[in-house]
Design brief:
The longest helix is centred in the middle third of the chain and has 9 residues. Helix content is 15%, strand content 20%. A hairpin with a 6-residue loop joins strand 2 and strand 3. It has 61 residues and is α+β, with helices and mostly antiparallel strands. The protein has a domain of 39 residues. About 10% of the residues have low confidence.
């Protein structure tokens, strides 16, 4: 039996720009879908400080 530890996930990309808490993905608004045609973005919300907005995505969708 192996006792190697699995490294914890680093969620730097999901850190809130205002307070640093982890954010959750939320549904895109119509304007976000239009923006996403030109620039891949994802919509997030922080439930710590209630910041809500788009973040750049490395994937389109």
């Amino acid at each position: 039996m192996s006792t190697a530890k699995v490294p914890a996930k680093i969620k730097v990309a999901n850190a809130c720009p205002r307070c640093g808490n982890e954010m959750e993905r939320i549904s895109k608004r119509a304007i976000d879908k239009i923006i996403n045609i030109l620039v891949p973005v994802r919509r997030f919300k922080c439930y710590g400080c209630l910041w809500e907005g788009n973040r750049m995505s490395s994937e389109n969708g």
